[in-house]
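Work Package 4 report. The design task specified in the project plan requires that, given a folded chain encoded as structure tokens, an amino acid be chosen for each position. We show below one input record used in the internal validation round.
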């Protein structure tokens, strides 16, 4: 076993890369004539959509095609970055005024060559979503998700994880008029890292309240607050904790925000925002911003 020192030197030399991009979408809708047939009433409400996006950057090398976007398994000596995104969704009553149902599958993959070695990430989700407008003022949205997040780092084993999770997210919205809206949301999430000896686990309860006020097209005010109760088992202040808790900490977490958008004139808009958070035992953080454009 020996010690090594790695030194990075920046130069003005440029390395040529071959960049390939592919964007493909597919949309399928039942014929409108099916709506007139009673026995085809259910299939006539179905709509399908598929989206495929590929971005690949490679160096010249043996066995690497500069024009084939589907060649994502590239030798490390030729790889700069590869990324792909797949989205498949089946809709029932898409855009309906009262009820809509979605079943979807999402997958994102990315592999990048960094100064500290190669790192690959992937995220795969299957979800079920429904929207029900109970009345003209009340609506209910419910989303259930089952997924897996993976990370593989070449030199840093503490960044490797395979997190499986599931979550349920109901949301009630009350909108008595076009000016005012209030939403109450809850999220229950369980996650577990399957490739660690410690077997990190997280149980998250999120309670969120949102309020919005609109006055024509000139004034927009949004206020939100979130309380998160987290029970985490594992090493604290680690990359795995960051990935599982999304920046929050074990225990009680509070987040709140306030934003104001105001059109002063036809060409001048004022944006004022404030964000605060109290995560675990950390101190309270306040962030304010203002923009005139």
């Amino acid at each position: 076993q020996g010690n090594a020192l790695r030194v990075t030197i920046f130069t003005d030399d440029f390395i040529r890369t071959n960049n390939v991009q592919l964007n493909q979408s597919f949309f399928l809708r039942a014929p409108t004539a099916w709506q007139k047939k009673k026995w085809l009433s259910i299939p006539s409400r179905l709509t399908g959509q598929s989206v495929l996006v590929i971005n690949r950057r490679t160096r010249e090398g043996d066995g690497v095609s500069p024009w084939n976007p589907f060649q994502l398994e590239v030798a490390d000596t030729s790889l700069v970055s590869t990324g792909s995104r797949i989205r498949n969704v089946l809709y029932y009553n898409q855009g309906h005024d009262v009820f809509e149902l979605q079943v979807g599958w999402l997958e994102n993959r990315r592999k990048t060559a960094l100064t500290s070695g190669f790192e690959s990430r992937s995220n795969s989700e299957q979800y079920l979503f429904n929207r029900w407008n109970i009345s003209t003022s009340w609506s209910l949205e419910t989303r259930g998700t089952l997924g897996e997040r993976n990370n593989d780092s070449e030199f840093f084993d503490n960044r490797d994880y395979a997190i499986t999770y599931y979550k349920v997210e109901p949301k009630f919205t009350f909108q008595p008029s076009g000016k005012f809206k209030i939403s109450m949301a809850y999220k229950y999430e369980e996650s577990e890292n399957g490739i660690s000896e410690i077997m990190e686990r997280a149980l998250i309860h999120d309670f969120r309240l949102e309020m919005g006020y609109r006055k024509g097209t000139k004034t927009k005010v949004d206020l939100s607050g979130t309380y998160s109760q987290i029970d985490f088992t594992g090493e604290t202040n680690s990359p795995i904790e960051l990935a599982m808790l999304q920046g929050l900490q074990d225990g009680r977490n509070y987040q709140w925000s306030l934003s104001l958008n105001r059109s002063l004139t036809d060409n001048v808009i004022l944006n004022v925002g404030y964000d605060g958070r109290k995560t675990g035992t950390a101190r309270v953080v306040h962030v304010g911003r203002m923009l005139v454009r």
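Helices lie at 239-245. Validation will be extended to a larger panel in the next phase.
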